[in-house]
Design goal:
single chain, mainly alpha, two-stranded antiparallel sheet, Cyt_c-like_dom, electron transfer activity, Cytochrome Bc1 Complex, Chain D, domain 2, Cytochrome_c-type_DH, globular, 12 helices, 294 residues, 4% strand, 2 domains
């Protein structure tokens, strides 16, 4: 009797493994909606700034125009290991210069590499998946204007079992969500604010607490979280906790100065530098969104 069960168990095990392999595969984006679109590098620059690409991928301690050299090398510690930003300059060997627009869109919105591997969600594609297709096209066009750099990317310092890339497919099944984090009133200003906060500027990636597997706890959206560096807390942006008025939020996003005469520190310094370069209407839209949170 037991001998008769063994083949059936093996068949079920093989079938379960096959299903697991299928559902956790890295599937690139359908790039057909991107084909034939006109691109605007100037608009792409705005997307680049709002998305904070240089903030993570410029070389450590880069200043001024050197921040446009996306050589990578910055280190981002976490509970799962230390992730090191790769070279994403247009260099065809060390960077992403040999990629197609479809490759780029798959990486940004799906976290899938050109060779069919999952990227770790330290790359905030969980937020970028909301990015408008035209913004992706314009961003790629701007990317072609950036300087090349031949600095090799460094491997992440991630141990077992988190170094198994296939497991990221399970993470994506659990946590990648196409819907917006919150439902708010439908006005052009609030739509823009939501797009900036939840998609381009990916504010939730730092300001929302995470569970044991690193997924964002949407029930406490923007409710504050431990700093991945282990130093202090990243503050809540919910209206009950962030008591600043809209004008004070706008001023902070432009200057880095708080109403109580303190100033931004840590990674927020780079965020302020980016927001200061955006139109005033964008900072106002972010403030409107934050004050409209439930």
């Amino acid at each position: 009797m037991q001998r008769g069960l063994i083949p059936g168990v093996l068949v079920l095990a093989v079938a379960a493994a096959a299903v697991g392999v299928f559902v956790t595969r890295a599937t690139p984006i359908d790039s057909s909606p991107l084909a034939g679109r006109d691109s605007d590098p100037a608009k792409g620059e705005t997307v680049f700034i709002a998305s904070g690409c240089a903030s993570c991928h410029a070389a450590p301690d880069a200043e001024g125009d050197a921040k446009l050299i996306l050589a990578g090398g910055q280190r981002f510690p976490s509970d799962f290991g230390t992730f090191i930003a790769p070279n994403i300059s247009p260099d065809p060997e060390a960077g992403i210069g040999a990629w197609t627009l479809g490759d780029f869109a798959s990486a940004v919105k799906k976290g899938v590499s050109p060779d069919g591997q999952h990227y770790y969600p330290a790359f905030p594609y969980g937020s970028y998946l909301h990015m408008d297709d035209q913004d992706v096209v314009d961003l790629w066009a701007y990317w072609q204007t950036l300087p090349r750099d031949a600095t090799p990317s460094q491997p992440h310092e991630v141990g077992f079992p988190f170094n198994i890339r296939r497991s990221v497919g399970v993470w994506k099944l659990l946590y990648l969500k196409d819907d917006w984090a919150v439902q708010i009133a439908d006005t052009p200003e609030l739509e823009r604010g939501q797009y900036l906060v939840e998609a381009l500027a990916h504010c939730g990636e730092c300001h929302t607490p995470r569970d044991a597997l690193g997924g964002m706890n949407r029930a406490n959206w923007l409710g504050g979280a431990p700093n991945p560096t282990g130093r202090g807390m990243i503050p809540s942006l919910r209206p009950a906790d962030l008591t600043w008025g809209p004008t004070e939020i706008v001023y902070y996003l432009e200057t880095g100065f708080t109403p109580d005469f303190d100033s931004a520190g840590g990674h927020m310094v780079a965020v302020i530098e980016n927001f200061a370069k955006l139109p005033a209407s964008d900072r106002e839209a972010v403030a409107a969104y934050l004050k409209a949170l439930p």
